[in-house]
């Protein structure tokens, strides 16, 4: 019998085949005595796509794109997750138009030349048995700003606007209304009906490119004070036309984008990330029924609508980013506590038990993460910073939970 080191079939070049896929729970391999399958490692199927576990990489901007094109930084950054056991990777906020980028170095998918570098990353991820999707975005009034470390150097109170000589586009920033996010941000124009059609068409064109690239899912960025969140929140949307005022009107354009994406994306998994609250002072609604800020009641109403229209398969529940004076609570000792956004995920899951819900936000402890799923508060967890600190979190989590997940053959000797 020969002992060939088999390569991944169909891969661009030779890499050893990992079987089962890295990050798969090894409960079916009795010889490993890996114990019971933790909730975090139960595969989940979404619209015919099976994710090997429920630990998802949250989208993370890298400010490392060349005119919106993914670079080798992205291949290495994302490739590192693909080889270390997560169930899925969501590629960073990727703008559907150039002026929808947060910073000049953000990712984009507005032109066909952006397809090839992403395709290479997706094919690599697939060769490692890891599902991968992309977050489609438009930054709205928060566009044309510096990358975070450049902001830090500029300091608070100074302008964070990337000017034209810094590759920015401060005179082409728009949102639902002409209200800047803060005095350090660009002064936006109110989008016209024509602008809205152009944005909708750009989301549809980017979705077509996602098909060609081979992404397993799309996540629409409806959170953190970017364009879609700006439309749904009464704090940033003061329009008096059919896109502003009543809740129905504020939801109109964001919902239209999702319907358009669904018609292009067909029956593939469509995720939506929302901010479940603006974290502004005071209640979501006044006593006379006026909506004062975005919150959980309107989030639930929007989810009802999206479910009825069949334009959501997973809701990724985040918060904040649309109100410069936001006060996030509860705060423990100055640090945002573990799973501080989980109560929002839980509330939405409770109201919509059939919806697949993702929890995100300071999730670092495997036991606590496991408890969120076991207690039915969410179906999957998204991790960002903890995975930057510890890309092997999934493998370590399996061990912390008294079981084993498949480690890359190439890394076995480390464990
Ligand atoms: C470097 C970095 C970049 C981020 N970029 C994005 C992004 O592109 N889209 C998004 O929705 N959230 C983004 N976020 C937020 C994360 O996805 C996540 O929601 C947040 O960091 C809370 O999760 P954590 O406590 O596990 O880091 C980013 C966070 C970090 C740290």
From TrEMBL:
Q: Name the cofactor(s) required for activity, per the record.
A: FMN
What Pfam families does the record point to? Oxidored_FMN (PF00724)
Q: Single GO molecular-function term?
A: FMN binding
Entry keyword Ribonucleoprotein: no
Stretches assigned to the NADH:flavin oxidoreductase/NADH oxidase N-terminal domain: 39-401
Keywords for this protein: Flavoprotein, FMN, NADP, Oxidoreductase
**Has UniProt tagged this entry with the keyword tRNA-binding?**
no
| InterPro entries according to UniProt | Aldolase_TIM, OxRdtase_FMN_N, YqjM-like
Domain of life per record = Eukaryota
- Kindly provide the name given to this protein in its UniProt entry: NADH:flavin oxidoreductase 2
